[in-house]
# Entry
Amino acid sequence: MGNYYGSWGRYVPVAERRASAAKKMKQLEKKGEKIEPVTINGRKITTTFWGNAWCTHLEKFSDFANRLPRGRSYVRNGSVCHLSIQKSTINAKVSGSSLYNVTIKIKPLPQNKWTDIKNKCAGSIGSMLELLQGKLSSNIMKVVTDSEKGLFPLPSEIELKCDCPDWATMCKHVAAVLYGVGARLDQSPELLFVLREVDHEELIATDLGVSTEPSRKRQVTGDLSALFDVDLEDTPSPQKTEKKPARITKTPTKPAKQQPASTLPADITAATIQNLRSKFDMTPSEFAKLLHVSPQTIKNWESKPGVLNLQIAHRSALKGVWNWTKNNAHQQLKM
# Structure
């Protein structure tokens, strides 16, 4: 019995533990490892839709609900010294009586579930910003957070591992990491989709194959001359078509051929995006910030063949900056 309890070692005050952990984290950084600590501001561990939804989901299951509270104080006091989220894997380091390594394996979201979620969300999410900020209708919120059919993993899809001496499957270090994931989703909600190995852009209406034809119809109705390179006001009426002056009136329409240079093309391709970004002399990340999309969206646009099937919000964003100069664009980034 004495040896058993002795394996736990002496009690180490929180301040001492954190100082020791911080020292070890610095040593790892010097070796080239990227350290991503979890920082909680205030008493609330999560504050956004995605972070709250993650924690609420896990707390619905009795096995987790009974053990998760053990990790709250740990994550609040900064004991999760490092937490990274990759495909199907969460790696973390938690400061306890020693520095413990936590690995959580989560199975990819089943394809049939993902297809069902996409079908139910089709046409209901207007932009990437709406999705990542959780500005969704109550119906879509129910779809993505459904405890059985939503984006979040079931207990049977989660494998927990910690190298601490606690024999419990979910020790306080693991519990702290699970809450830490919620806090991380507050900052980077797209990591949930990385974790479940699905592309969050597929939830946007356009990527689901929802036609953007109404957008083009609005362009046709509102600006036929720009779309077809014809000055409609100068087009001769049927009564004047036989008169040569009617043909002469087409001469002034030649400048209209210059319009495509200052009007967003009806058909946008990867080259269109690349040329505009080159004109602004911006990196994909800078260009993404300018358009209020993710850098991955820019990379996807610039790598897809043929005409891009852009959603209305993205087309509007491109139209808004189309005539900007390099200086205009860079000034906007600084604002």
